[in-house]
């Protein structure tokens, strides 16, 4: 992730502090971010992803945190990604507006925004597809498809490795290997585009726990899985192990939006008074399972969930893909509370640190059984600990048995109650005991040589994220 240190030398004299609602072009976009950073240098940082777009436009991110540039244990990381389809542009402008808003409210001592920024690391990528945006804009921004794709005519939201196929196969075979599945990919359906590769490297290298990707063309919060389990093209609900949690996350956005969840609003494709036969998501709370709407392979949402610890949903922000500039500030008002409510969702469930006598344990596995109802139900999607031994397990209110495990240690389980309306995840730390030291302490097992204990890799220095990013990503795409 290259830093962008020299922008200021060129542009600092020309920046103005007032945010204007309009369609910002690819030259103006980094200037807007730079304005925000100038106003809020202590809580923001601008960086570009590792690779630019096909037409060489950098993919800029602005980060908000009280420790910009650094992950801190107990502090969840969240991202918003806008404009993945180049002609779906509202998310791009909302994220620029959100960047200004977070900074301005922080400076005005807005207590809620200060608490959010002090407890959360927030990354905003306003445009994942600047080339598509350019084409769409140059052709008037009215077409349903022109500008959707990147400059290689590839749909970026179909270009991610299809991990759904892998997890469905494991499910069918009863194999309980349910996370970080990128290393199980044996071939890619298509070469990775530069924008896809840049975003993959990003999501594999930052320990995100929550995310949303922004689209347009309908008004609904869509949650995993996007791919059906039977191959049906539509109307085939495809539940993930975290179905309850995903529904809760999507509902958090929809119900805080002005009318996404309104049962009385009209559906986007309604022609007359009668909207039977077309989807009206307002009548179902403003949320939908992806495959229950229509099935797609290679989407970014499911990739996040199946390749990393991040839970991602997809936001369709309105019927109009390219709204008129004069409507943008109204759209901001309609989305503002939802954008903030969703960021707070990074704080639901439990979080903590897994360690042993000598330090943090990276890549420990956190598994959860839902013991709220009469029958315990395992949630077959584990999360793993990161560089500081820290984990974040998003959960809805209820009672859970949480287990931390790692090869070479005895697993430890604890029971926890997740309350409603959390603004901070319940802290649950684990101290694991190496199996070898247990043998050392037992009379009769004293013959176990200390050498074998010392040979135990106690702390894995390289994270799963880095390992996968540096090996799988590199050679897989070169084979095609
Ligand atoms: C940034 O932090 C420094 C040192 O703590 C402080 O003096 C300065 O006022 C802060 N600037 C802003 C814009 O908050
Ligand atoms: C790629 O970009 C060039 C230069 O902007 C443009 O002329 C061309 O139409 C674009 N092609 C596609 C397929 O988007
Ligand atoms: C656990 O079970 C309860 C009761 O069935 C349910 O309300 C809750 O959403 C479940 N939690 C998760 C994370 O699935
Ligand atoms: C949680 O918030 C909702 C909505 O604000 C409220 O109706 C509910 O009573 C709250 N629950 C608790 C336990 O505070
Ligand atoms: Zn889209």
Automatic annotation (TrEMBL):
Its cofactor is Zn(2+). Pfam families: CarboxypepD_reg (PF13620), Peptidase_M14 (PF00246). Residues 22-346 form the Peptidase M14 domain. PROSITE patterns: CARBOXYPEPT_ZN_1, CARBOXYPEPT_ZN_2, PEPTIDASE_M14. SMART domains: Zn_pept. InterPro entries: CarboxyPept-like_regulatory, CARBOXYPEPT_ZN_1, CARBOXYPEPT_ZN_2, Peptidase_M14, Peptidase_M14_domain. The active site is at residue 316. This is Peptidase M14 domain-containing protein. Belongs to the peptidase M14 family. Keywords: Carboxypeptidase, Glycoprotein, Hydrolase, Metal-binding, Protease, Signal, Zinc. Residues 1-17 form the signal peptide. SUPFAM superfamilies: Carboxypeptidase regulatory domain-like, Zn-dependent exopeptidases. It comes from Loxostege sticticalis (Beet webworm moth).
